[in-house]
Each structure stands twice: as C-alpha cells, then as structure tokens.
Amino acid sequence: MSLRLGDTAPNFTASSSAGTINFYEYLADGWGVLFSHPADYTPVCTTELGRTALLKQEFDKRNVKVLALSVDPLDKHKGWIKDINETQNCSVEFPIIADEDKTVANLYGMIHPNASETFTVRSLFIIGPDKKVKLMITYPASTGRNFHEVLRVIDSLQLTANHSVATPANWNDGEDVIVVPAVSTEDAVKKFPKGLNIVKPYLRYTPQPNK
Ligand code: BEZ
After folding, report:
1. Does the beta carbon of 121 lie inside 6 Å of ligand 1?
2. Which residues of 137-154 are buried (b: 16+ CB within 10 A; e: fewer)?
3. Does 45 sit in the ligand 1 pocket, CB within 6 Å?
C-alpha cells in the first residue's frame, strides 16, 4: 500500500553525502522535506538541487530540514555535488541519500515502474513535526519542481497548524487567509482580532494572523 496524506512517514537509516542518517533523528522536532530525483549528473536535477541549496535560509527560517535522494552511489553524489556548487553558484549542505538498494525509494513509493523500472521519479514529501505526511507531489523526470511553491505550501501548513486558518487558491504570504470551517464565527471574532470578512457563512477571510 502506498503512502497517503496523514500517514506516519516511515523512519529509516541510510547512507548519505553527510554520513549515515536516521531520518527521525535528522528531523528532530522540526518539519522535513524529503525529495527524490531520477539520477545524478543530469541537467534538470542539477538545477533542482542548486535551487534548494540557494533557498537554505528560507528552509531554516521555517525550521525545515531538507533531504534529497537518488539510487546512485555515494561517490557519485560527492562528485556531482561539486558540479552543482560550481554551476549553480551554491553550496549543497543538505544530505543526499545514496539509496542503491532502493530501501527508502520502496518505503516511500518513489519508483513508478511504468515511468522507469530503475530510477526514482521526482517525488516530494513534506513531513510535519508529528512525523505525519502533509504533502506528496510527483513530477515527471523532464519537469523541474518549483521550490518556491514548496515553501508556499510549508507556509500554509504552518499557518493551519498554528492559527487554525487555511489558504485560498493562489495565496501568497501576506495575503488574507480563510478561517477553517471547524471554528465558529462567534469564536472567530475573538480569535482573529484583525477582523473578519464574511462573504458567506462558510467563506470567511481574515488578515494573515502572523503578519
Ligand atoms: C534531468 O534531471 O535532467 C533528467 C533526468 C532524467 C530524465 C530526464 C531528465
């Protein structure tokens, strides 16, 4: 059975470019992004890992630990990191798992046999501090992911976790958010002192609480 939202993210211990890693210990009490790419020394993956490295401060600010994965061996990862740093003007500091025996790939359903029998697809999981899977996305090998979108989702998830609000379509940081249906309007008036815009009883906006 493949993983679904709300499932507990499986723990694992794996070899990585930063040494042996236990996933839960690596995450500690923070959030996590675990993402796979098809192969080392490939162009789209090079840009993805570079972009992730350049966003380090943004992930740190949100208490998010990043962990990449492919089924290539450790020595290949180490050589490729030098290329990523050189070509993307970055410093890859997050670990890249060398999942040669596909243990982690199989745990997380990162191999889609009809796409490739051997390589992981571009899977990405956001894991909450409770170790539950909060988001799963899968991209084809030919499309690089948008890591600003990953940060946007993390912002939305953290707002929901901390303030009982959801975020509307195309929401961006700083824009009005939506009061979740579980909060009554009577409670919302007290909880959101910046005010409510009640468009319908089920559609209630409030300014972003943490701004
Ligand atoms: C890439 O990262 O560029 C890539 C990897 C596998 C297939 C196609 C592109």
Report:
1. no
2. eebebeebbebeebbbbb
3. yes
